[in-house]
Specification:
This protein is α+β, with helices and mostly antiparallel strands and 401 residues long. Among the domains are: 60 residues, Herpes Virus-1; 55 residues, no CATH class; 159 residues, Apoptosis, Tumor Necrosis Factor Receptor Associated Protein 2, Chain A (Sandwich), CATH 2.60.210. Helices cover 25% and strands 24% of the residues. The chain contains eleven helices and 24 strands. Strands 15, 20, 21, 23 and 24 form a five-stranded antiparallel β-sheet that branches. Strands 16, 17, 18, 19 and 22 form a five-stranded antiparallel β-sheet that branches. A two-stranded antiparallel sheet has the order 1-2. GO terms for molecular function: signaling adaptor activity; zinc ion binding.
């Protein structure tokens, strides 16, 4: 029976890999010993390789194969040759700066540092980095490149970016105008001679400046007069903004009769001059518990042309600064001066006119119930009712000469 089996026709175990051998079973073993598709061990690395690929394996893939570097001739095993080829100093490689040069690896660093047209190099004047082949063009524009002064002065070389300043401020050979040019001096000469000119012309320069100062003083006085006129409040109303109120109130508590005085205001451009004062800690019957408010007529430039005594109604309004206008509750007091009151007769230049008003205008306690002081600011509005314009006319203005 076994003899019959040995006579059976079989295919090679490696028929799927391409072997076409077929024969009786009894010859299979002998065939496998020579089959080109059978796996055999590499004698160098013991890897299992098809017999027909063994030569290629030994020549190309075997990590223990012996291989010679084509550049330096050194012998290496297959596992080390690739590493060596990336470092071999005799291998010819391209410059990494892409300048197109090909050199042995041992020369490439020197080339890239010293010879390559595309190497990076600092400008020795401004210290910025440039490609070597563009450096010459840069030097024609470099702001720190030393250039010669056109006046041939010393120093002969000045950084390009400083040349304008050198010519206008430092060059001893440059023509310079006298510092007093704008005031009338016509001198112009080399800067080196300027100091001598200033010494020799000191008297004339002083005369020039005295004239300028005198003219400017007149201009200032004129402009100040215009400014004062423009800034005057001439509509009979004052909105007085009192800042840092807490500090002023504290000072008034600790000192006697601290008085805050408002800027003056007028009933018209040529009208009565008035001034308001506040005692934060009170005055008279309001001392210590109330804010006192007074107004007085002060000496004005046109008093001799106005009707006296002053008889226009006056109102004080302490403004509530509540954010909702509908909820504001202002404090208002008003009065009309009596013609017999001395406070509102024509003021004398030599006498301090006493004010008239309300010593108990608002109590300190009530002041805290609303937003009468907000962000440390208080607003007091004062109005003079000038609706009776006939009373404002200067006396005898209807008579002709």
């Amino acid at each position: 029976m076994s003899g019959d089996i040995q006579m059976l026709m079989v295919r090679c175990h490696f028929y799927k890999d391409g072997c076409r051998w077929t024969d009786q079973l009894m010859t299979l073993q002998a065939h496998l010993e020579s089959c080109q598709y059978n796996m055999v061990a590499c004698k160098e690395c013991s890897a299992m390789v098809a017999r027909n690929h063994l030569k290629d394996h030994l020549d190309i893939d075997c990590p223990r194969r012996s291989e010679t570097c084509e550049y330096c001739g050194s012998e290496f095993t297959g596992s080390k040759i690739d590493t060596h080829l990336g470092k071999c100093q005799l291998e010819v490689v391209f410059c990494e700066n892409k300048c197109g040069a090909k050199l042995q690896r041992r020369f490439i660093n020197h080339h890239m540092l010293n010879e390559c047209a595309k190497r990076s190099i600092p400008c020795k004047y401004c210290h910025k980095e440039f490609v070597y082949e563009t450096l010459q063009n840069h030097l024609h524009q470099c702001p720190r490149y030393p250039v010669s002064c056109p006046n041939r002065c010393e120093p002969k070389k000045v950084p390009r970016e400083e040349m304008e300043k050198h010519l206008t401020e430092a060059c001893p050979s440059a023509l310079a105008c006298c510092p007093y040019k704008q005031h009338g001096c016509k001198h112009k000469g080399p800067r080196m001679s300027l100091e001598r000119h200033l010494d020799e012309s000191m008297k004339s320069h002083l005369t020039m400046m005295c004239s300028i100062v005198s003219s400017q003083q007149k201009t200032i006085e004129h402009l100040q007069g215009q400014l004062d006129t423009m800034s005057l409040n001439t509509d009979g109303q004052l909105l007085w903004r009192i800042t840092d109120y807490a500090e002023k109130f504290s000072k008034a508590k600790n000192e006697e009769e601290v008085e805050l005085v408002s800027p003056p205001f007028f009933t018209g451009r040529y009208g009565y001059k008035l001034q308001v004062s506040i005692f934060p800690s009170g005055n008279g019957s309001g001392e210590g518990e109330h804010v006192s408010v007074y107004i007085r007529v002060t000496n004005g430039d046109f008093d001799s042309l106005l009707r006296w005594p002053f008889t226009f109604p006056i109102s004080f309004t302490l403004l509530d600064q509540n954010e909702d206008p509908n909820k504001r509750m202002h404090i208002k007091e008003s009065f009309t001066p009596d013609p017999t009151w001395k406070n509102f007769q024509r003021p004398s230049k030599d006498v301090h006119v006493l004010g008239y008003g309300y010593p108990t205008f608002v109590s300190h306690n009530f002041l805290k119930t609303r937003d009468y002081v907000k962000d440390d600011v208080m607003f007091l509005r004062v109005r003079v009712d000038c609706s009776n314009s006939q009373s404002i006319k200067i006396k005898n203005d209807s008579q002709s000469s």
